[in-house]
């Protein structure tokens, strides 16, 4: 298994096929997993497969996913851990902003404590749609300071507009924006990341985790999968990897079977007929 070769993630070099741990939490990314033993088994399989880029957040659960990662993978030798700050959860699972500079620092420290590590490979700043420009500049300054203080090796931004990307581009190691075969709104940012050598980490590469824009049912994806004898999910992931050398995938799952299916997509080469149809 090649895991699609490697690319830079800040100062780290990681395989282009990684793992997103969000789905290890309960429904709605809230509460404990439906099957705790399977969740731990998935993480063991992640380690066995040689995955070296794992994406998480303290607000997945909250607190649940990082606790599972610590139990299954600590001391994380050979794994670049990437987390996210800028939000929190209420008692009912609602998503709330937690994005003042002091909040971001506290979020990083909470991740470090929960994972029992002295520093993180990278942390993404989750940007809220209505954040004023002045706040974004303060947030970037807080992330730069966390890097200078040795809490993180690098940082990225998530859910950013092209204008926000340009403001942050000289400092960031990665961008996490929604992007897939159906939803290409972030194509300009992906292109800019490719030009600058910045990692682009698309979330929802198979379509929204909330049932919107399910790529796996698109007729071109289905037709390509049937012709090549693979699954629509694998076609969608292989297509996304083909969009640029700095694209890093972190498909998430709470199932060992789906994990194996996702990782195998790294070894699928889309031929000229497939690329022509999918273009």
The secondary structure category is alpha/beta
> What kind of sheet is the major sheet?
7 strands, parallel
Q: CATH architecture, please?
A: Alpha-Beta Barrel
Task: Kindly state the percentage of residues in helix.
Answer: 25-40%
Strand order of the main beta sheet, please?
3-4-5-8-9-10-11
Shape: globular
Task: Please count the helical segments.
Answer: 10
Give me the CATH superfamily.
Answer: NADP-dependent oxidoreductase domain
**Strand segment count:** 11
Rounded mean pLDDT is 96
- Alpha carbon gap, first and last residue: 26 Å
Order of helices and strands: EEEHEHEEEHEHEHEHEHHHH
Question: What is the fold-level CATH name, i.e. the topology?
Answer: TIM Barrel
Q: Please tell me the total number of domains.
A: 1
Give the C-alpha Rg: 18 Å
Q: Would you identify the regions where 5 or more consecutive residues have pLDDT less than 50?
A: none
CATH domain class: Alpha Beta
Query: What fraction of residues sit in β-strands?
Result: 5-15%
Explained architecture:
The protein is of the alpha/beta class. β10 (174-176), α6 and β11 form a beta-alpha-beta unit. The strands form 3 sheets. A 7-stranded parallel beta sheet has the order 3-4-5-8-9-10-11, covered by helices on one side. α1 (36-49) packs across α2 and α7 crosses α8. The model has no long low-confidence stretch (mean pLDDT 96). The chain has a single domain, classed as TIM Barrel. The chain has helices at residues 36-49, 64-73, 101-115, 133-148, 162-168, 187-196, 219-228, 232-241, 256-264, 272-278, and strands at 6-9, 12-15, 19-20, 53-55, 80-85, 87-89, 95-97, 122-126, 155-158, 174-176, 199-200. The protein has 10 helices and 11 strands.
């Amino acid at each position: 298994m090649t895991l699609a070769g490697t690319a830079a993630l800040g100062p780290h070099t990681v395989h282009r096929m990684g793992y997103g741990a969000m789905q290890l939490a309960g429904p709605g990314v809230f509460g404990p997993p439906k099957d705790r033993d399977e969740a731990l088994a998935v993480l063991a399989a992640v380690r066995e497969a040689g995955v070296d880029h794992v994406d998480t957040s303290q607000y997945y659960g909250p607190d649940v996913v990082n606790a599972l990662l610590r139990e299954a993978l600590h001391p994380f030798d050979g794994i670049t851990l990437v987390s996210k700050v800028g939000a929190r959860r209420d008692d009912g699972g609602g998503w709330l902003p937690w994005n003042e500079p002091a909040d971001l620092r506290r979020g990083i420290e909470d991740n470090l404590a929960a994972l029992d590590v002295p520093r993180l490979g990278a942390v993404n700043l989750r940007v809220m749609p209505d954040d004023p420009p002045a706040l974004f500049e303060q947030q970037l300054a807080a992330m730069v300071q966390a890097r200078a203080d040795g809490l993180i090796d690098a940082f990225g931004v998530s859910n950013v507009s092209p204008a926000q990307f340009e403001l942050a581009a000289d400092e960031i190691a990665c961008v996490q924006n929604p992007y897939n075969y159906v939803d290409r709104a972030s194509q300009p940012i992906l292109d800019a990341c490719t030009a600058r050598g910045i990692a682009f980490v698309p979330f929802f590469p198979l379509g929204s985790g909330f049932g919107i824009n399910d790529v796996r049912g698109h007729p071109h994806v289905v037709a390509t999968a049937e012709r090549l004898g693979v699954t629509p999910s694998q076609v969608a992931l292989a297509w996304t990897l083909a969009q640029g050398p700095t694209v890093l995938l972190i498909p998430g799952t709470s199932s060992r079977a789906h994990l194996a299916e996702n990782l195998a997509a790294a070894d699928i080469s889309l031929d000229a007929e497939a690329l022509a149809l999918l273009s």
